[in-house]
Amino acid sequence: MNNFPHGFLWGASTAPHQIEGNNINSDWWVQEQTVPGMEPSGDATDSYHRFREDMELLAGAGLNAYRFGIEWARIEPLPGQFSRAELAHYRRMIGTALELGITPVVTLNHFTTPRWFAEEGGWLSDRAVERFSAYVAESSSILEDVEWVATMNEPNMLAMMTTMRRMMTAAPTAQQDWQSPTVDQDPRPQLPPPDPEIGARLVEAHHAAREIVRHRTDAKVGWTVANRAFVARPGAEEKKRELEYIWEDLYLEGSAGDDFVGVQSYSSQWVSETGIEPHPQQPDNTLVGTAYRPDAIGIALRHTAEVTGGIPILITENGIATADDARRIAYTGEALRHIAEAVDDGIDVRGYLHWSLLDNYEWGHWEPTFGLVSVDRTTFVRTPKPSLAWLGSVARAGAPTAVAH
Ligand code: IFM
């Protein structure tokens, strides 16, 4: 009981825009400079230059998988102009991971797009799928020995952000309401529900990308879906199903025919008959304003398995925004126990990738720290936190209950 399957991946995740620095050709770079209240990403953690050091820290702790992304805005800074040098850069990252005995899990799109793509109409433009496909085709040329490829990160949150941007364009004063799509600030505006029309476009783009990657590589292809782990108050079951469809199931159903689905969950949300209950401010909230709910990942795994009908699952993100590393260890230990129970119940989970390897840029803010490693933003010196060694020891033991903390 509570042993993870042989060959289980143990690692951590990152995203290019959140760690690389100076991603100046991306739509997010523009947004950071213009939306009031947003902090810029700047040099980020300079992982564009320091990726080997990051991977060595991960491997040295005993972890065997690293999820990182390719940045579209670097590969195609202008429409149709692909950078061989940038492709070579990401190929070096893949090569470094393999050399260090790390299984690379490569994400092709993690929220950001080239600014020209955004100016052309972004995901709502008639050319969106064609444009994304061209980028994916070029990127596939460096993926020949990559086993796991995610076409897109959290398309449901991307659809929500696209909906949010459309609302901000229509009413610029709304810019003050949302200073980050992931940080629940005070006062607390509700996130807009992702527009299903945008969701349908992302499903189309994912399917097109999946076929391109399959045609050109031997990788397992899927995408990763944010799971809000909704729980219904008495009498709110119907409302919960309605919200689950809008926020998650449209995208989980889009996984049909994929080789795996990425599950990402951090906290859980109550649903009453009138909708999602805003989570009140309280002392044990995380640094992104969410409830401390290590059980969320178990809810997310069960819901994903039910909707997808048993496609292999990779946990591509799970973690906590906290300045207290002992709390990170407590949260993660508890989350791993919920994962182990789901595995024992027959859910096909292939790996656990913690969010995040590094304290990084949390979409408009630097304060929420999710990392197993802290980074001095002036010198870029990395300092592993106790949680990194702790997760490595769990990985070596292969069972969370075997590790004292
Ligand atoms: O930082 C984000 C990541 O980019 C997508 N998933 C949630 C994380 C924490 O908010």
Characteristics of this structure?
TIM Barrel, globular, eight-stranded parallel β-barrel, 13 helices
Q: What value does the average pLDDT take? A: 95
Output the structural class: alpha/beta
Number of DSSP helical runs: 13
Largest sheet: 8 strands, parallel, barrel
**Topology as a string of helices (H) and strands (E):** EHHHEHHEHHEHHEEHEEEHEHEEEH
Parts with pLDDT < 50 across at least 5 consecutive residues:
none
Sheet with the most strands: spatial strand order: 1-2-3-4-5-7-10-11
Approximate strand percentage: 5-15%
Rg over C-alpha atoms, rounded to the nearest angstrom: 20 Å
Task: Report the CATH architecture.
Answer: Alpha-Beta Barrel
Number of strands: 13
The CATH class name reads Alpha Beta
What does this structure look like?
With 405 residues, the chain is α/β, with parallel strands linked by helices. It has a single domain (9-398), classed as Glycosidases (TIM Barrel), CATH 3.20.20.80. The protein has helices spanning 16-19, 27-34, 47-60, 72-75, 84-99, 115-119, 128-140, 155-170, 196-216, 237-253, 296-308, 325-344, 386-397, and strands at 9-13, 65-69, 103-107, 148-153, 220-226, 230-232, 260-264, 269-272, 275-276, 313-317, 349-355, 373-375, 382-384. The strands form 3 sheets. The protein has an 8-stranded parallel beta barrel with strand order 1-2-3-4-5-7-10-11, surrounded by 8 helices. A 3-stranded mixed sheet has the order 6-8-9, covered by helices on one side. The protein has a two-stranded antiparallel ribbon with strand order 12-13. α11 (296-308) packs parallel to α12 (325-344) and α12 (325-344) runs parallel beside α13. It is globular and about 55 Å long. Bound molecules: 5-hydroxymethyl-3,4-dihydroxypiperidine. 5-hydroxymethyl-3,4-dihydroxypiperidine binds next to loops.
